[in-house]
Amino acid sequence: MDRVLTDKEAAHSRAVKEMFSGIARRYDLLNHVLSLNIDKGWRRSVRRELADVLACPDSLVLDVACGTGDLAIELQHDSAATVIATDFCRPMLAVARDKEASIPYVEADAMKLSFPDRIFDAVTIAFGLRNLPHHADGIAEMHRILKPGGRLVILECSKPRLPVFRQLYELYFSTVLPRIGGMVSGSRGAYEYLPDSVSKFPDQKTLATMMETAGLTSVEFQNLTGGIAALHSGTKSG
């Protein structure tokens, strides 16, 4: 992908990398505590979505913006496929390697992945797309490296559907989460960034449309835990 980031986008990427570098060692603990461990079930949903791909020994699967490696590790569990993971934050990758050294981890920016066109049978990204400086271009870059017939699966924070549940969730997300996250991680700013980034992220239907615009077909999504998160999937046409 030849697109060059604007100065604003480049500054955003630098800030996100610095933020995640500062909380890398506390990231897993806070994820599980703040989500009441529900995030583990969400990642299992990704593995189920790609069960047929993961069962094939010839399959090559890439987890983009892998962070500390939780999804890549989940995908590799009982899998016949080869799973590779990539992230642009070195301290997060160091944590991932400590957890599961058998997975190849590649330091690379999701906006410009260091892989040739049409190489992967599946590409995943969990809770990373909203951190990219340009969501549509990030989807296009993942589309580029998919083989024809390959599948893109996106797991991301989303918009709860029921009004009362949405109000309670937004209250927790905007007030309780930053306080707990700040106390445990030492970086309240990182956990104030989280609800802000989610509020600016496209809703379920808009994200599905963006995937179709990038050239993906058979795009579907399912809400998880009332829409706190959503699982989107699509296939690259021939």
General description of the model:
This protein has 238 residues and is of the alpha/beta class. The chain has nine helices and seven strands; from the N terminus they run H-H-H-E-H-E-H-E-E-H-E-H-H-H-E-E. Helices cover 49% and strands 21% of the residues. Strands 3-2-1-4-5-7-6 form a seven-stranded mixed sheet, sandwiched between helices. The protein starts with 6 loop residues before the first helix and ends with a strand.
Keyword list:
9 helices
Structural class: alpha/beta
Number of helices: 9
How would a textbook summarize the main sheet?
Answer: 7 strands, mixed
- First-last Cα distance: 19 Å
For the residues shown, what is the average pLDDT? 91
Relative helix content: 40-55%
Write the layout of secondary structure elements.
Layout lengths: L6 H28 L3 H12 L1 H4 L5 E5 L5 H7 L5 E6 L2 H10 L5 E3 L12 E7 L8 H11 E12 L5 H23 L2 H12 L4 H10 L2 E9 L4 E8 L2
Parallel strand pairs: 1-2, 1-4, 2-3, 4-5
Antiparallel strand pairs: 5-7, 6-7
Helix pairs in contact: 1-5, 1-7, 2-4, 7-8
Summarize the structure.
The protein has 9 helices and 7 strands; from the N terminus they run αααβαβαββαβαααββ.
